[in-house]
Specification:
The structure holds two protein chains of two kinds. By secondary structure, chain A is mostly beta strands. Chain A has no helices and twelve strands. In chain A, strands 2, 5, 6, 10, 11 and 12 form a six-stranded mixed beta sheet that branches. A four-stranded antiparallel beta sheet of chain A has the order 3-9-8-7, with no helix packed on it. Chain A starts with a strand and ends with a strand. By secondary structure, chain B is mainly beta. In chain B, 0% of the residues lie in helices and 56% in strands. In chain B, a hairpin with a 5-residue loop joins strand 5 and strand 6. Chain B is globular. The chains are: A mainly beta, B mainly beta. Chains A and B meet through strand 11 of A and strand 4, strand 5, strand 9 and strand 10 of B.
């Protein structure tokens, strides 16, 4: 069965600092992997996705993620965080029905 | 990207009544739509997969008689929460699949009083 683990419930970083959000997945075949961001009371916005090919994926808002099959990971990174990046981030896996991780809440300190 | 519209965005209903939530794909046709439920500060839990013209597939533990799903056209799926109770209060989100990507609605905040 497919599943996603986001080990960090809450992360706080200073504005301008780099960010890495962890995501590990369990999937029987080549996974379709996604990162979404959710602001309070809002729906989901897709940041980036991986289906195949280049394992380093570029997304919107300066985010990128790297697919590492050997580690079953798809960590999200950003070199310099902005205050507007504060939100809830979800990693998801699946080709049809998607399974979401528990989410990581990002707080950005001034 | 493709747009999915979910309506209403917020609804308050009395205990025992039913509430219908609509999910529309505005600029594409979606043979498959998905319904999720999200409790405060928690992740999205898949409730059911809605297939146009056929019965929905419910996840284990989801009461199909309570959460009625209808996918009557390629652009519309509805979720009806029947005989709502306060414990049904939650954030409900739909998504519609276009090719290899799912697009999400803005969600519906249901409060049952």
């Amino acid at each position: 069965a497919q599943s996603v683990t986001q080990p960090d419930i809450h992360i706080t970083v200073s504005e301008g600092a780099s960010l890495e959000l962890r995501c590990n997945y369990s999937y029987g075949a080549t996974p379709y992997l996604f990162w979404y961001v959710q602001s309070p009371g809002q729906g989901l916005q897709l940041l980036l996705k991986y289906f195949s090919g280049d394992t380093l994926v570029q997304g919107i808002k300066g985010f990128e993620a790297e697919f590492k099959r050997s580690q079953s990971s798809f960590n999200l990174r950003k070199p310099s965080v902005h205050w507007s990046d504060a939100a809830e981030y979800f990693c998801a896996v699946g080709a049809n029905d998607m399974r979401f991780g528990a989410g990581t809440r990002l707080t950005v300190k001034p | 990207g493709a747009v999915v519209s979910q309506h209403p965005s917020r609804v308050i209903c009395k205990s025992g009544t039913s509430v219908k939530i609509e999910c529309r794909s505005l600029d594409f046709q979606a043979t498959t739509m998905f319904w999720y439920r999200q409790f405060p500060k928690q992740s999205l839990m898949l409730m059911a997969t809605s297939n146009e013209g056929s019965k929905a597939t419910y996840e284990q533990g989801v009461e199909k008689d309570k959460f009625l799903i209808n996918h009557a056209s390629l652009t519309l799926s509805t979720l009806t929460v029947t005989s709502a109770h306060p414990e049904d209060s939650s954030f409900y989100i739909c998504s519609a699949k276009a090719a290899t990507e799912a697009f999400f609605g803005q969600g519906t905040r249901l409060t049952v009083v």
